[in-house]
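Q: Joint fold for the lines below.
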Amino acid sequence: MLRALGVGSVEDLLVDLPPAVRLDRLDLPPGSSELETAACLRRLAARNRVYEDRLCFRGGGVYRRFIPAAVQAVISRPEFATAYTPYQAEASQGTLQAIFEFQTLIAELTALDVANASLYDGATALAEAAMMAVVHTGRSQVVVEGYLHPEYEEVLRCYAAGRGFVIRAGLEAVGEDTAAVVVQQPNFLGLLEDVEEVAGLAHRWGALAVVCVDPISLGLLAPPGECGADIAVGEGQQLGLPPSFGGPHLGFVACRRELVRRLPGRLVGQAFDAQGRRGFVLTLTAREQHIRRERATSNICTNHSLCALAASVYLTYLGPEGLRRVAEVSFRRAHALAERLWALPGVEAAFPARPFFNEFPVRMFHVEQRLRRLGEAGILGGLPVARWYPDRPELRDVVLFCCTEVNDPAALDLLVEVMGRA
Amino acid sequence: MLRALGVGSVEDLLVDLPPAVRLDRLDLPPGSSELETAACLRRLAARNRVYEDRLCFRGGGVYRRFIPAAVQAVISRPEFATAYTPYQAEASQGTLQAIFEFQTLIAELTALDVANASLYDGATALAEAAMMAVVHTGRSQVVVEGYLHPEYEEVLRCYAAGRGFVIRAGLEAVGEDTAAVVVQQPNFLGLLEDVEEVAGLAHRWGALAVVCVDPISLGLLAPPGECGADIAVGEGQQLGLPPSFGGPHLGFVACRRELVRRLPGRLVGQAFDAQGRRGFVLTLTAREQHIRRERATSNICTNHSLCALAASVYLTYLGPEGLRRVAEVSFRRAHALAERLWALPGVEAAFPARPFFNEFPVRMFHVEQRLRRLGEAGILGGLPVARWYPDRPELRDVVLFCCTEVNDPAALDLLVEVMGRA
Amino acid sequence: MTEPLSFEKSRAGLAPPRLPEAEVEAPDDLPERWRRRNPPRLPQLSEPEILRHYHRLASMNYSAAERFYPLGSCTMKYNPVLNEQLARLPGFAELHPYQDEETVQGALELLWQLERALCAVTGMDRMTLQPAAGAHGEWTALRIVQAYHRARGEERDQVLVPDSAHGTNPASAALCGFTVVEVRSSPEGRVDVADLRGKLSGRVAALMLTNPNTLGLFERDILEIAELVHGVGAKLYYDGANLNALMGICRPGDMGFDAVHLNLHKTFATPHGGGGPGAGPVGVRRELVPFLPRPTVERDGDRFFLDHDRPASIGRVRSFYGNFGVLVRAFAYIVAMGGDGLAQASLDAVLAANYLRRRLEGALDLPHPGPCMHEFVASARNLTPHGVRAVDLAKGLLDLGFYAPTVYFPLIVPEAVMIEPTETETRATLDAFADAVHELVRTAQARPDDLRSRPLRLPVGRLDEVAAARRPVLRWMPAGSEGDPRP
Amino acid sequence: MTEPLSFEKSRAGLAPPRLPEAEVEAPDDLPERWRRRNPPRLPQLSEPEILRHYHRLASMNYSAAERFYPLGSCTMKYNPVLNEQLARLPGFAELHPYQDEETVQGALELLWQLERALCAVTGMDRMTLQPAAGAHGEWTALRIVQAYHRARGEERDQVLVPDSAHGTNPASAALCGFTVVEVRSSPEGRVDVADLRGKLSGRVAALMLTNPNTLGLFERDILEIAELVHGVGAKLYYDGANLNALMGICRPGDMGFDAVHLNLHKTFATPHGGGGPGAGPVGVRRELVPFLPRPTVERDGDRFFLDHDRPASIGRVRSFYGNFGVLVRAFAYIVAMGGDGLAQASLDAVLAANYLRRRLEGALDLPHPGPCMHEFVASARNLTPHGVRAVDLAKGLLDLGFYAPTVYFPLIVPEAVMIEPTETETRATLDAFADAVHELVRTAQARPDDLRSRPLRLPVGRLDEVAAARRPVLRWMPAGSEGDPRP
Ligand SMILES: Cc1ncc(COP(=O)(O)O)c(C=O)c1O
Ligand SMILES: Cc1ncc(COP(=O)(O)O)c(C=O)c1O
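A: Joint structure:
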């Protein structure tokens, strides 16, 4: 190729670089063979502790769930994995149709009208929803009600600080400057909120109701669309994605049809060719950065398409009845576990009056010691929440336990047994 | 569907079954969910000990080697994995072309004219080659020279007992009844044989020379075709397949062009369509069971196609120079290790005068105790051969060590260190 | 679009992939006389090129994962993707066959349990899991029967095989040194009992029977047949490649069979791999057990072990213990399905076959009265007057996005079209396939040339197999190399 | 052939997959008021149908694994398959983000080492690995710059963005509350330094620059630009989505950049996934380090830990620590390539782009003088007289088995055709692509209608995007359900 270009070396093509910036040598070790690369990464992987799924009772936004083998079989297909964002629709119908199905699945799950093609994660999805509301209402405050996941709140505040809106806490703060009221269902502590009431209040003040949901819970719990929400967002990790130390996971956002042109990110719509054959295209792109630049609804370009595909396979595998059963098994096991834990000496329900779904807060003595003992028994115990609430003494000794269909009864027994040791 | 058939239940379709044979109930546990199925199999898998590749020094026909990730990426494609034998050529060009390439790769590796589409394993490939010779020469004896893998010999004897030919041992037995002389290179003990001499003798008596080879060794060692062999067979596990407790692996057979119509199993050949486009088809099927029935060259129908595909990807990944390097690294490391082991007190070379490739026999005191100690250090030590040679006292304390590119120098050090402990 | 051969894309002089260095002192001092003179002409391609090459080849294949694959006698059911993941678990895939027994207890238990499950399905007393495929299993079973007779001092030299049998049956018998004697089928497609009776004698070692036979018909007279065979001291052998109709419905053992082989790569849902690897376990009744290949897997309390000490054994039929990776998949299938699931699968398979058979009435000839079991054989001889043959119908189906049924087998049906839908296909798929056959039959009548020109929508058109076999080119050769390896 | 929607194939009443039972006493006593009234209308399909559905969808996609994907600005290089396997190791994939630090030392070390490696490549002092994509990284970097200025008591309200910049640049700036001021490009395609000078002031927080810019041209005046920007106290920000020309060649830090984002899903070979997930780490120079998102990963001897105690931090930009699975792949890529390999990759990328550019001379307009860096922008305006547009050329390429280049971007080039071949393509592929473009240009001249009718060989013909946006249908609705959700 050099010969075709009439140059002696690639250096001759780098004529525009100021000599001062030309690097001598990249300061990294030399390359390695595939065998050695794999060995290096395996060594690192071996220095992490992997808890058995069934012995993992820690959630806090990331959960172990049964992942059907079909998910991996689909998302590892290189036709999906190594395609770009589907700019050339006719050569990307696989990706496009999969996204269209994903949008429908999320709309059905949330009982709202439309959903987008995906966002980065639950936290950024919530921030995007808040910004939708700020733009839509032209107001400058967002009210957070109840125990919102502390990391989601931190992300929300980071976006607000840039974009220039204010976060306020508690329904008391709702007023005529309120763009949106945000509530998480179940909340960070696993407790159920009264979303309908929150939405009612928001609407009375002309604000939007934004609900952050656990998608699995929607197999059992009333979905945002049945509770008056205008926008629903959430984290889709539970829909077929491994914990993977926190990512990549899957943000989703759904809304009422009136808000569709405010949606961030990609949207896929139905289209037809000259012969009348149905296909799918990226649509409503006039919202987006590559057309609208600084006036776009968001800066989203690459989103989490392959994760959305995983979620689609997962939900399609379960179907409506399967999803309900997964939710129900999680609910029932968590409640059985809660009863047994609360019955232990030195352990009590942190919010005994509040209903929960499959995660619940427990107050106990000797938090650290108990968790250490669980660890020795191979169990990843619940999540202590105190670090996020340094000024809340009533949450100091609270630990959040979760339970899903992967935690079989024998695992529950073991947990209770170790927790019960003097 | 029942309605379309006008029957009330499937029972009504089972009219031809004598009632006496109708089963009440299949005596097996009820089915389980995917989660529980996976748990059941994982429990079984967890009850096996997995040695790190680099600490595995046991061969005896199955070896740890570096397997490029490309192999798994290709063979897990459902288009390859879930197709049948390519009866409909036009809809099976992927499989057919892959086999055609495999045939070429094996022919090149062995330096013979043609190879077939695959056989079950090295042992049955050897038996098939012996039967080719028996039919081709019309003679009734097969002579085995040197240390042939004892399991291969047992398989050969099993086929001979059915088909009606006789196995004899040692070059002394060669004579005018000899259909073939069989030799393994390197032999079961890892030692190099003089294949050229064996082939010369066979040919002088009008017999065929059959060589059973280690395909990796052919990166360095003179191939059968350069040594006068008429048929080469071998075990292809090392070409990209995991040990998998002994299977599925890969038998291959290659031969001189005069013998092609004696080959067992599938053969793929080039063909053209009416427009002159090249494609590939199953060919010379007049040798095969579905055409020739009891007069077929073999009964092979399903062979080991997907394993052959793995081998093709493996060999294509390495290329000629890569294969040579893998063979050379194995050779050099094995020789370095041998020197160090032989230098230990109470350990000596079992056949000091004989050259070897990457596996070598060591005679030592305290075989069991030493292997146990290696096991405690996480090492799968060499293979004691005594169990196959109960009448050969000189092999009683002999252990076969092998070394490949996965056994890094630190692994060698550890092995030597533990072996040297008093 | 066709794809060049990897050899044709090879780039001479390309650097090999990065590989580990030896990092030891020892030189490569292999004496010259053992050293290879000419390196093999393997292709030289980079990793991205290799992947793209094989991805493109993959896209040139029809597969059961993507399409209906109604290949009769092949049971192309859905292969659960979970099982692929399980077979790759390091605790299975990374086991060396010569590890000490104490370190492979899970593997041995799996083999032990799988044997028990297959015995439950077949009604046999013990199984060997060694054989690598169906044909290998047939031969193994015949070797066992042969050893049994020999142990009784009898050298029986004949094996009876129905004319409808799969080609591997006579081939396996011949490979085992037997003379094959063919048994005729009756006009209705079942064993002609009178013909059988005439051929039975003290020379007969075994009758190889497939039931349901390859026409998809249950051998109604099976109990009588068994009695006749046993009457001359012969053994009754069951070709269980076709067990998919019978799981939980009836057991070969209860029909009087003495030996059975199974194709786990059919009935037990392991993928066929474009031609293997499969697994062909063989089950036998008590009196044949001593002759099973060794080692067997035995249990002693909680401990599992390999028993090599079996003096009457025929020996080994292959190295190690069978196609373990395939056995893992089959075991996972059985665990997931359970007794109830397997029985349901067979019922569903029978229903699907009968439904599809009904849907094809009027399109193709159905030479044998139904109902059928899990498959059926139609005949395209009704198209012969239009100059259209079964192969033309097959190629027409490819163009419509279906794989073709098995054609020209069994040999006793002219223009045979052998169809096996399996239980994992939906009614919608069966309907679409039936519609396609009807459409092609109409095309055959109206525009026979059209059908004879098919396929037109695949990477290549109809390939000339006759010319290919006349001057076979079985490998790539570098351009300009001396001669080509045509035999 | 197109494929029905999963919803359209749904079989009402189909039994759900087998799932575990609760096996506990506790009933489902969720109070009614929290209970869902109408179940979601998810599809009801069996596992085999689901797999077949998605396999068929897969076969309707072009992908880099199978074809040349010359999409400019997207760096569709080969994604090593090893890295997919490594990211799935249980020791990575099964880690809970809230496990105790002592149990995730390997993961933290990986993050720490990856940060060091990316600093070496970019010349930055520290990096955050949190951002999930390029645009997310841009916004994160601007938030850091904003926090920096605010900490100094300055509320700068403008961000300068060249007119050639990627759309995410102005969008990210706006999302961060800045007013975007566009900087003009000179006729030769580089920043118009005079225009820049005029727009710089104390209101400017940062200039966002891409270098090589989106035309594939290196900004020759970069050192002067840096001086000017720093002169008004603003920060110079580097859009490193396009780093593929510069690894080991030169470092943004040495050019005077203060903050950088990288697209690991481009330069560092992690697969794009049909639109993510990616990773957009952000590197900064010393004075911006205090403002990095928290937590950072720190090392104390042999121990690695998360540092949450960073009072000046902008906070979090997402949950947890980044797209860890993507970071694992990128790290594996760096280990495999090494310093030498990365530098060679950039040299090869530049060579491939220049070669392809040369090969296209005479076919398309090349509005800017070369040499280019890793990509280049041609213009199809020479086809306008024939009534053929860039989009027609793109669709024609699809029919010839290539993905199309990026078209109509950058906005400053009419009928832009932006081509990035990457280092992992062979000369043979580049030649085949160039030949195809030449062929299409000839077609455009001879038979423009032909090109405007393309594609004809794909599952669907050219889709009417305008009509689709006019009455958007964004989801499936059951037949006969009230209304459709058209906004
Ligand atoms: C009825 C019957 N018997 C035997 C076989 C042979 O099995 P295999 O191909 O596994 O050798 C087959 C399948 O091909 C078959 O259909
Ligand atoms: C130059 C440039 N900047 C920024 C981006 C945005 O990156 P992402 O799509 O990861 O958000 C892209 C890619 O789309 C790009 O090409």
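Q: Anything notable?
A: Residues A 301-302; D 73, 133-135, 166, 168, 210, 214, 239, 241-242, 263, 278, 280 surround pyridoxal-5'-phosphate (ligand 2) (CB under 6 Å). Chain A touches chain B at residues 33-35, 38-39, 54, 66, 68-69, 73, 76, 78, 405-406, 408 (CB under 8 Å).
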